[in-house]
Specification:
Layout: H1 2-27, H2 42-74, H3 79-93, H4 97-107, H5 116-141, H6 145-153, H7 158-173, H8 175-188, H9 200-211, H10 214-242
Helix pairs in contact: 2-3, 2-5, 2-9, 3-5, 4-5, 5-7, 5-8, 6-7, 8-10, 9-10
Length: about 250
């Protein structure tokens, strides 16, 4: 335990030492002005940060629902539904998220009225849901067949088999992968800036342009993204220990 703590402390020290050296080297040719950014634009950063949290949270929720539905379908014996699920995951795992956002917002937007925030949530949910479905499928298929046979022996139907036995265990076993996918989702939300959604990256770009302080603005944006994802990582570790099967 002490050795692990010592190794982490040394690694953290070396990392921050290298960051400081890099900062010093850059400051020789770039005049950092931290009194201007982010403090003069704090409300704009908070507004963008809030928008990023909104689209990330809603996208996580819907992506999880989509992932569970298609993940469960992949483990059933219904050939037609399995093929539909496979087509969905194949399409959305092999098209860049940026292209999906453009198709949803500008393509579907030409048919129906879709706002930038709705288009972003739909795109992120469909894209991340395809990956989550594979994570859920893998978790379900990793459960021993003996448990399934025992459940059927005592008369459990498919609904209770999944809700009471398979999915709870699948969630526990796939928590690290799900946490990583949620972190990716938060980072991928930055692509919503291409449709002029006023989320964190878009706000950071606007501030960088208006203040002529590009480094300061984008470093501030990076720190805000890091804070969210670090929190998700810590939360994921907590639930891993809390609900560990082993």
């Amino acid at each position: 335990m002490k050795n692990n703590f010592l190794q982490k402390a040394i690694s953290s020290f070396l990392f921050f030492f290298l960051v400081c050296l890099l900062y010093i080297e850059i400051s020789k040719s770039y005049p950092f002005n931290w009194t201007k950014v982010p403090f003069n634009y704090i409300l704009l950063y908070l507004k963008g940060f809030y928008m990023t949290l909104i689209i990330s949270c809603f996208s996580m929720f819907f992506a999880m629902i989509i992932g569970i539905i298609f993940g469960v379908i992949k483990t059933t014996k219904n050939i037609i539904l399995k093929e539909i699920s496979n087509i969905y995951t194949t399409i959305f795992r092999n098209i860049p998220l940026l292209v999906i956002i453009l198709i949803v917002y500008y393509g579907m937007g030409s048919i129906m009225d879709i706002s930038a925030i709705i288009g972003s949530i739909i795109s992120l949910s469909l894209f991340e849901g395809a990956y989550i479905s594979e994570i859920i499928r893998g978790g379900i298929e990793s459960i021993s067949k003996g448990q399934i046979e025992a459940a059927k022996t005592i008369g459990l139907n498919d609904f209770y088999l999944y809700t009471d036995i398979l999915l709870p265990q699948a969630f526990r076993m796939t928590l690290p992968s799900l946490t990583g996918q949620f972190i990716s989702l938060v980072k991928d939300s930055s692509l919503a800036s291409v449709i002029a959604l006023q989320e964190l990256t878009m706000v950071g770009r606007q501030i960088a342009t208006s203040s002529f302080a590009s480094f300061e603005s984008y470093i501030t944006v990076a720190i805000l993204y890091f804070s969210v994802n670090a929190f998700l990582q810590v939360l994921g570790k907590y639930f891993e220990r809390r609900y560990s099967i082993i």
